[in-house]
Specification:
CATH architecture of the largest domain in chain B: 3-Layer(aba) Sandwich
Distance between the termini of chain B: 36 Å
Number of helices of chain B: 9
Shape of chain A: globular
Shape of chain B: globular
CATH class of the largest domain in chain B: Alpha Beta
CATH topology of the largest domain in chain B: Rossmann fold
Largest interface: A-B, 20 and 35 residues
Radius of gyration of chain A: 19 Å
Number of strands of chain B: 10
Oligomer: heterodimer
Helix content of chain A: over 70%
Strand content of chain B: 15-25%
Strand order of the largest sheet of chain B: 6-7-8-3-9-10
Number of domains of chain B: 2
């Protein structure tokens, strides 16, 4: 956001991507699979962060955008036999369209009402999935058959069930979304989004149509979350209604808060942290949620702005 | 010459209170107009109606020949009506640079060019003497500097009508002198509508003065005429400033 040289942030982000690429060759199998999943879900968190961190709109309904992508892609493969790229595009389009409609309606409210309205729509979406169980598999969900999960590019085909292909696909999606969000945040549009978060009334009086800016942010955020959902269906092969439940609206909020709201890398850090705390704690005790809870309380006490948010505040002011 | 801004029968009630009551007002291009009046006279409500921050109960606002009564605030800003707030409302967590970059990027036709934004921002900051504080968070600037930043943001909009709501409130005397110079400079390229309590500032700056009382225009004229007006002295000058 500052007019500092762009070199440092870009170097840092490319460095993170390179590190994730390198990790693919050294990680043991279990962590390799976990990290692929984390990268896909970090995309979900990045989409959430754009709206929550930068525009300051707290949605409690983002599970519907994730699952719009999940079901959009999954059902296109299962029922229509679409190819992987077409199914991914279908998932993305479902999320974008849903975000446009929800945005038009929900943005008439703000603050607590916005939270409630988005949560309500997400619940409707969740119940619709259960209601149309004949197509969606209801609460059992559906498994995307393995032979369908093959990405054909020209004469080569990639089996998305292969661990390395899956990891690299997740990394590719993660990298693209990370660089897109970095570009958005550093652009004039990103500056307007932050201005709306800080003082919407004042932003209007500078001649900005804040409703359109917010609507665009909802659509971009929803599309990114849908991309994450579509990738999840295609890479991990499971399409389930639990991803549409309210828990999956709260998780991205938690990941973003942990990693640092309004930081580009915070969503990755938060998702990574949360997954590994659960993973490590559950290795010692069945009461691992207790340890997760204590970790969260300690974080809020000592890093109220999230991990990266606090680092930026104390040491690295240039972090985007 | 056609007025830049006219209002006809402009009214706004809050509950039973007629804060602005049937105001007919005209402002010529290029003038510096001061609005004075006792507290609660409806001055801020009046300029808020003009800028579109609040909607009128009745009446009409014409800017540059076009009826803008039903336009939203942001669209009026795009037509060239800029409003600087009475209570300082810069974006405290953004740098001074980013505060000014917002209006600059909006007015540029090629808002994507970072170089053009930078040039525009630094020009506005230099004009208000804030260039060396560009990277400071606006909330950490002194109060006087925040007021100047507010003006820089208004300037960056390249307004045709700049509305300043009590701009000298809270400024030190030395800062006020600079401020008067700045407003004179602005008036070369824009029409200025100024709400001000500081009478020496009003007398030095204004081409004409409009006096509000109880939601209506009590008097209007040159500073000399207003100074000599008995009704104004009763309502305002005599009691509060002498």
């Amino acid at each position: 956001m500052k007019d500092a040289s762009p070199a440092k942030p870009y170097a840092l982000h490319l460095g993170v991507i390179a590190l994730l690429f390198g990790l693919s060759f050294v990680l043991p199998e279990y962590h390799h699979g976990l990290l692929a999943r984390i990268m896909v879900l970090a995309v979900f968190a990045m989409g959430y962060n754009l709206l929550f961190g930068y525009v300051g709109l707290l949605s409690l309904g983002h599970a519907m955008f994730f699952s719009a992508g999940l079901y959009g892609a999954g059902l296109a493969v299962i029922h229509l036999g679409w190819s992987v790229p077409a199914a991914f595009a279908a998932g993305l389009a479902c999320g974008a369209l849903l975000a446009l409609v929800i945005g038009l309606l929900a943005l008439r409210t703000s603050g607590v009402a916005f939270m409630i309205v988005t949560m309500m729509f997400a619940q409707v979406f969740y119940l619709l999935i259960l209601y149309f169980a004949a197509w969606t598999g209801g609460d059992q969900g559906l498994v995307v058959p393995q032979p369908m999960r093959v990405l054909v590019l020209g004469s080569t085909s990639f089996d998305l069930t292969n661990a390395t292909v899956r990891y690299m696909s997740a990394l590719a999606l993660f990298s693209i979304v990370l660089l897109i969000s970095l570009a958005i945040v550093r652009s004039g549009y990103g500056r307007v989004l932050v201005a709306i978060r800080e003082n919407e009334e004042r932003t209007k009086m500078l001649g900005f149509d804040t409703f359109s800016s917010k609507l665009a942010a909802v659509v971009i955020s929803g599309s990114i979350c849908a991309a994450s959902g579509a990738a999840y269906a295609l890479l991990f092969g499971y399409v389930g209604s639990s991803f549409a439940s309210v828990q999956y609206s709260i998780l991205p909020l938690l990941w973003v808060l942990l990693g640092g709201a309004a930081t580009t890398l915070g969503p990755l850090i938060g998702t990574l942290f949360m997954y590994y705390v659960i993973d490590i704690a559950s290795g010692y005790t069945s009461a691992y949620l207790l340890i997760v809870g204590i970790a969260l309380i300690l974080l809020v006490l000592f890093f109220p702005r999230g991990i990266l948010g606090s680092i930026r505040q104390r040491w690295l002011g240039w972090l985007p | 010459m056609m007025p830049l801004l006219t209002t006809k029968g402009l009214s706004r009630s809050f509950g039973g209170l007629r804060a602005v009551d049937g105001v007919d007002f005209a402002l010529m291009p290029g003038e510096i107009r001061a609005i004075i009046g006792p507290n609660g006279a409806g001055k801020t409500t009046f300029v808020s109606l003009v800028s579109g921050r609040i909607e009128p109960s009745s009446g009409m606002i014409v800017f540059d020949g076009a009826d803008i009564t039903s336009l939203p605030a942001y669209a009026r800003v795009r037509l060239g009506i800029a409003y600087t707030f009475q209570i300082t409302s810069v974006f405290a967590n953004l740098s001074a640079y980013d505060n000014v970059a917002l209006p600059v990027q909006r007015t540029l036709t090629d808002g994507r060019s970072k170089g053009a934004v930078h040039t525009g921002v630094m020009a506005a900051l230099e004009r208000t003497g804030l260039a060396d504080r560009a990277q400071m968070p606006a909330g950490q600037l002194s109060y006087g500097h925040q007021r100047l930043l507010e003006v820089a943001m208004g300037l960056a909009l390249k307004p045709r009508l700049l509305i300043l709501d009590e701009p000298t409130q809270g400024l030190a005397d030395s800062e006020i002198d600079n401020f008067i110079e700045l407003v004179r400079e602005i008036a070369d390229s824009a029409t200025v509508l100024l709400i001000e309590h500081n009478m020496p500032v009003v007398m030095q700056l204004a081409d004409r003065i409009t006096v509000f009382n109880a939601g209506r225009i009590l008097a209007e004229g040159t500073p000399e005429q207003i100074r000599a007006n008995a009704a104004v002295q009763d309502a305002y000058l005599g009691t509060t400033h002498g």
